[in-house]
Protein backbone atom coordinates (compact mmCIF):
# COMPACT_ATOMS: atom_id res chain seq x y z
CA UNK A 1 0.00 0.00 0.00
CA UNK A 2 1.36 3.43 -0.85
CA UNK A 3 1.10 6.29 1.58
CA UNK A 4 -1.41 8.24 -0.50
CA UNK A 5 -3.99 5.48 -0.83
CA UNK A 6 -6.79 4.49 1.46
CA UNK A 7 -7.21 1.00 2.87
CA UNK A 8 -7.40 -1.66 0.17
CA UNK A 9 -10.88 -3.00 -0.64
CA UNK A 10 -12.47 -1.00 2.16
CA UNK A 11 -10.74 -2.94 4.94
CA UNK A 12 -9.57 -0.88 7.90
CA UNK A 13 -5.84 -0.20 8.15
CA UNK A 14 -4.14 -0.30 11.51
CA UNK A 15 -1.31 -2.85 11.38
CA UNK A 16 0.22 -2.10 7.97
CA UNK A 17 3.89 -1.22 8.54
CA UNK A 18 3.86 1.76 6.13
CA UNK A 19 0.81 3.14 7.95
CA UNK A 20 2.32 2.65 11.41
CA UNK A 21 5.71 4.08 10.41
CA UNK A 22 4.25 7.14 8.68
CA UNK A 23 1.96 8.02 11.57
CA UNK A 24 4.61 7.49 14.24
CA UNK A 25 7.15 9.53 12.29
CA UNK A 26 4.73 12.42 11.82
CA UNK A 27 3.64 12.43 15.47
CA UNK A 28 7.23 12.23 16.68
CA UNK A 29 8.36 15.01 14.35
CA UNK A 30 5.98 17.40 16.13
CA UNK A 31 7.14 16.11 19.51
CA UNK A 32 10.83 16.42 18.62
CA UNK A 33 10.30 20.07 17.72
CA UNK A 34 9.37 20.62 21.39
CA UNK A 35 12.15 18.29 22.63
CA UNK A 36 9.62 15.78 23.92
CA UNK A 37 10.08 12.00 24.14
CA UNK A 38 8.95 9.93 21.18
CA UNK A 39 5.65 8.10 21.26
CA UNK A 40 5.60 4.33 20.88
CA UNK A 41 2.97 2.38 18.93
CA UNK A 42 0.30 0.53 20.89
CA UNK A 43 -1.55 -2.31 19.17
CA UNK A 44 -4.21 -2.12 21.90
CA UNK A 45 -4.85 1.57 21.20
CA UNK A 46 -4.83 0.81 17.46
CA UNK A 47 -7.48 -1.88 17.97
CA UNK A 48 -9.63 0.60 19.93
CA UNK A 49 -9.11 3.18 17.18
CA UNK A 50 -10.04 0.62 14.53
CA UNK A 51 -13.39 -0.13 16.16
CA UNK A 52 -14.24 3.57 16.32
CA UNK A 53 -12.98 4.34 12.80
CA UNK A 54 -15.16 1.55 11.39
CA UNK A 55 -18.14 2.97 13.32
CA UNK A 56 -17.51 6.48 11.97
CA UNK A 57 -17.22 5.21 8.40
CA UNK A 58 -20.52 3.34 8.84
CA UNK A 59 -22.41 6.40 10.13
CA UNK A 60 -20.42 8.78 7.87
CA UNK A 61 -19.88 11.30 10.65
CA UNK A 62 -16.84 12.48 12.62
CA UNK A 63 -17.71 12.23 16.31
CA UNK A 64 -15.59 11.62 19.39
CA UNK A 65 -16.12 8.45 21.40
CA UNK A 66 -17.49 9.75 24.72
CA UNK A 67 -16.97 6.35 26.36
CA UNK A 68 -13.19 6.80 26.49
CA UNK A 69 -13.06 10.25 28.15
CA UNK A 70 -10.23 10.34 30.64
CA UNK A 71 -8.96 6.86 29.74
CA UNK A 72 -7.62 7.56 26.24
CA UNK A 73 -6.99 10.71 24.27
CA UNK A 74 -8.44 10.84 20.76
CA UNK A 75 -7.88 12.72 17.53
CA UNK A 76 -10.14 12.25 14.52
CA UNK A 77 -9.55 13.30 10.93
CA UNK A 78 -11.78 12.73 7.90
CA UNK A 79 -11.57 13.66 4.25
CA UNK A 80 -12.19 12.56 0.68
CA UNK A 81 -11.38 8.87 0.29
CA UNK A 82 -7.96 8.24 -1.19
CA UNK A 83 -7.10 11.92 -1.60
CA UNK A 84 -4.73 12.37 1.36
CA UNK A 85 -1.53 10.69 2.50
CA UNK A 86 -1.18 9.47 6.07
CA UNK A 87 1.28 12.31 6.66
CA UNK A 88 -1.24 14.85 5.34
CA UNK A 89 -3.84 13.58 7.79
CA UNK A 90 -1.65 14.12 10.86
CA UNK A 91 -0.39 17.41 9.41
CA UNK A 92 -3.92 18.81 9.73
CA UNK A 93 -3.58 18.43 13.49
CA UNK A 94 -0.03 19.77 13.45
CA UNK A 95 -1.13 22.85 11.53
CA UNK A 96 -2.84 24.04 14.72
CA UNK A 97 0.63 24.88 16.08
CA UNK A 98 0.38 28.35 14.52
CA UNK A 99 -2.42 29.17 16.99
CA UNK A 100 -0.78 27.51 20.01
CA UNK A 101 0.33 29.63 22.98
CA UNK A 102 2.21 27.98 25.84
CA UNK A 103 -0.22 28.06 28.76
CA UNK A 104 -2.51 25.73 30.69
CA UNK A 105 -5.11 23.81 28.72
CA UNK A 106 -7.53 25.05 27.33
CA UNK A 107 -6.03 28.56 27.49
CA UNK A 108 -3.12 27.57 25.25
CA UNK A 109 -4.56 29.12 22.09
CA UNK A 110 -4.91 32.41 20.31
CA UNK A 111 -8.47 33.68 20.70
CA UNK A 112 -10.99 30.97 19.98
CA UNK A 113 -8.68 28.95 17.73
CA UNK A 114 -8.69 25.15 17.86
CA UNK A 115 -5.43 23.63 19.12
CA UNK A 116 -6.60 20.54 21.00
CA UNK A 117 -5.53 18.10 18.29
CA UNK A 118 -2.02 19.56 18.27
CA UNK A 119 -1.77 19.65 22.07
CA UNK A 120 -2.78 15.97 22.28
CA UNK A 121 0.00 15.09 19.82
CA UNK A 122 2.61 16.97 21.89
CA UNK A 123 1.23 16.27 25.39
CA UNK A 124 4.34 15.42 27.43
CA UNK A 125 2.80 12.72 29.61
CA UNK A 126 1.38 10.84 26.63
CA UNK A 127 3.68 7.92 25.83
CA UNK A 128 1.85 5.78 23.29
CA UNK A 129 -0.40 6.10 20.27
CA UNK A 130 -2.40 3.71 18.12
CA UNK A 131 -4.32 4.67 15.01
CA UNK A 132 -6.63 3.16 12.43
CA UNK A 133 -8.04 4.24 9.09
CA UNK A 134 -11.44 3.14 7.80
CA UNK A 135 -13.32 4.20 4.69
CA UNK A 136 -16.85 4.02 3.38
CA UNK A 137 -15.65 4.58 -0.19
CA UNK A 138 -16.37 8.30 -0.16
CA UNK A 139 -14.79 9.41 3.10
CA UNK A 140 -11.70 8.18 4.94
CA UNK A 141 -11.75 8.33 8.76
CA UNK A 142 -8.50 8.34 10.73
CA UNK A 143 -8.77 7.80 14.47
CA UNK A 144 -5.74 8.02 16.76
CA UNK A 145 -5.92 7.05 20.41
CA UNK A 146 -3.38 8.19 23.01
CA UNK A 147 -2.31 6.98 26.45
CA UNK A 148 -2.20 8.49 28.92
CA UNK A 149 -4.76 10.97 27.64
CA UNK A 150 -3.65 14.57 27.21
CA UNK A 151 -5.51 17.87 27.20
CA UNK A 152 -5.98 17.87 30.96
CA UNK A 153 -7.77 21.06 32.03
CA UNK A 154 -5.51 23.28 34.12
CA UNK A 155 -2.27 21.54 33.07
CA UNK A 156 0.39 22.69 30.63
CA UNK A 157 1.11 20.43 27.65
CA UNK A 158 4.81 20.13 28.62
Tell me the layout of helices and strands.
Layout: H1 17-33, E1 40-41, H2 43-59, E2 73-80, H3 86-94, H4 116-122, E3 128-135, E4 139-147
Parallel strand pairs: 1-3
Antiparallel strand pairs: 2-4, 3-4
Helix pairs in contact: 1-3
Largest sheet: 4 strands, mixed
Uncertain stretches: 1-9
The N- to C-terminal Cα distance equals 35 Å
Number of domains: 1
Overall structural class, as computed from helix and strand content, comes to alpha+beta
**CATH fold descriptor:** Pathogenesis-related Protein p14a
Q: How do the SSEs run, as a string of H and E?
A: HEHEHHEE
What is the CATH C-level name?
Answer: Alpha Beta
Number of helices: 4
Task: Quickly list its features.
4-stranded mixed β-sheet, 32% helix, globular, 4 helices, Pathogenesis-related Protein p14a, disordered N terminus, 158 residues, alpha+beta
What does this structure look like?
The structure is a single chain. The chain is of the alpha+beta class and 158 residues long. It has a single domain (11-147), classed as Pathogenesis-related Protein p14a. It contains four helices and four strands, in the order H-E-H-E-H-H-E-E. It has helices spanning 17-33, 43-59, 86-94, 116-122; strands at 40-41, 73-80, 128-135, 139-147. Strand 3 and strand 4 form a beta hairpin. It is globular and about 40 Å long. Mean pLDDT is 93; it is low at 1-9.
Amino acid sequence: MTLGLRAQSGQPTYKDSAFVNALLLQHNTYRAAQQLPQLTWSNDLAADAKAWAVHLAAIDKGDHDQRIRGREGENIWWGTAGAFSYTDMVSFWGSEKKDFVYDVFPNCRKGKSVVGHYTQVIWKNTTSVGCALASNGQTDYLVCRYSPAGNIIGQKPY
